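User: Could you check the structure of this?
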Amino acid sequence: MATLDRWNISLYYKVRALKNFSVIREHGGFIPTIRQLSKLKKAELVKLAKDSVWFGSVPLNKIKRKKRFRIEFLEHYYERMTVISDFIVQAIRALKDARNYMRVEQLCELSHSELFCTEEIMSYASNGKSGAKYLYELFTSYDMIPKMDGIVVRLVTGTEHEVLTEDEILLCNLLAEGRKYGDLILDYDPALGNQVVISYAAYNSNNPFTTVPLKWTNRSLN
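Assistant: Sure, the predicted structure tokens are below.
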């Protein structure tokens, strides 16, 4: 049963990742093959696969051991690619907005990152107060965002506006503080009202995706 459950998880990540890959390619993006991953990342996936392989008490020949290792390796590969491609697919709709400078192919560079972490955080501001201010105060009080080289911030607001509010600028610059690279994607969901949602992808990489200044202002968005 344990083996069956692990296979189901592996199949889930593969199916989800391949579905995302199809959407990304339709919008001009690319998906790196396993061979195109960095040597460091491939070595990490190999180690994860070796650590999680369980052969049990039944002796296995070389072919069966190799097959079991490949299953484990692909599970870790597709799990990672699912998380990265989920973030890219989520951002694709917003990239059509004229306010955004990023392209799908730039987001696809996240696949080459050495470390990657993504999370979505929503504000819970009351009485019509600013959701951006709520998150700014939350992030200044608690160290919630990983300290990595770069970050791509997707800011979802409940009102569609051409320029950022002062609270939104403070929030976005706080998220970029202390990093080598920072990129911003603006999105809109009228159901949010006065709330905002931050969806970020923090990463370590040797190269930036764009050449936009880290400090965000309304001027840099136009």
